[in-house]
Amino acid sequence: MPANVILFYKPYGVISQFTPDGDWKTLAEFGPFPDTVYPAGRLDADSEGLLLLTDDNVIKRRITEPRFMHPRTYAVQVERVPDSNALEKLRRGVMIEGEMTRRADVTLLAAAPDFPPRPAPIRFRKNVPTTWIEVTLTEGRNRQVRKMTAAVGHPALRLVRTRMGNLTLDGLLPGTWRNLSASEIRTLRGSTSPRPDRYRKKPGRSSRPGP
């Protein structure tokens, strides 16, 4: 049976699961999706953007296991404007819960991305400017991007995952989705390779992408 792989634009305020949990919206409110698919990784309720749903175990492993170093890109609105020192710290890695993050690609964006308005207003502080940065990671520790920007003094106000490997949100709006083509699935299955043994994850590190 062919694999089901769905690219979903997860809206703000939706948890990355089908089963109810309190008053949160779930993935079951969108779709309809095949009964066999589940999220490959996760996005927290207050994060938005690209989420893959699949019943392909190879793709699930490649997306979620840190040894495959699958790249994920996020657009992040932060308080104030990070200077070159803060940006370089994010690139080199920062200490989170006793462990350094891997090197990351971090860019200060010249203009705000053209995202649809968020249903819940962004928290603004009077006389505190905000700006957008783009962050690409090859690991997915719990709420990692938010913890990284907070560690360098720039709390995240809005976070949107825009890309996973070669897949993007192009053509989608929050709450909409599309099936990946056969060629996209083949590319995804073979797009990454395991990192050398000396870089394998240490015990205790979360393997679930959840910025």
| Helix fraction bin | 10-25%
Largest sheet: 9 strands, mixed
Given the structure, what is the number of helices?
4
CATH architecture: 2-Layer Sandwich
User: Number of DSSP strands?
Assistant: 11
N/C terminus separation: 33 Å
- Name of the top-level CATH class: Alpha Beta
- What is the radius of gyration computed over CA atoms, rounded to a whole number of angstroms? 17 Å
Overall structural domain count: 1
Plain-language structure description:
The protein is an alpha+beta fold. It has one domain: 2-Layer Sandwich (Pseudouridine synthase), CATH 3.30.2350.10. The chain has 4 helices and 11 strands, in the order βββαβαββββαβββα. It has helices at about 55-65, 85-90, 145-150, 180-190, and strands at about 5-10, 40, 50-55, 70-80, 95, 100, 105-110, 130-135, 155-165, 165-170, 175-180. The strands form 2 sheets. Strands 1, 2, 3, 4, 7, 8, 9, 10 and 11 form a 9-stranded mixed beta sheet that branches. Strands 5-6 form a two-stranded antiparallel ribbon. The longest helix is centred in the middle third of the chain and has 9 residues, at about 85-90. The chain is globular and about 55 Å long.
